[in-house]
Amino acid sequence: MYFTRLKNKWGVESNSQFILIFIVFGITGSLSVRLAKPVLEFLNINNDFFKDLFLGDILYWTLRVVIVFPLYQLLLLVIGTLFLQFKFFWNFEKKILCRIGFKRFFKK
User: pTM of the predicted model, to two decimals?
Assistant: First the structure.
């Protein structure tokens, strides 16, 4: 029952598409968290950088979460495209971006 409502809300046409969408969400979430550390290392930022600061660990992990968010958004489109679900994830991204204040960039 719950999945039927979700399929209707998202405009998903088949169970196989629904499964692909959940696979994309799973891969994207895992991969974005996994890639956050290498991205920070590429920017030459690591946990030792914040070691001497007050609440340094909290600052490091906050920065890491801030890195994960845009990385997740980008990976969602890339992985969604690889699974032939670009249209669904592009519409999903537009909703998210509109909710966080980028509404003016998207026409209704």
Answer: 0.80
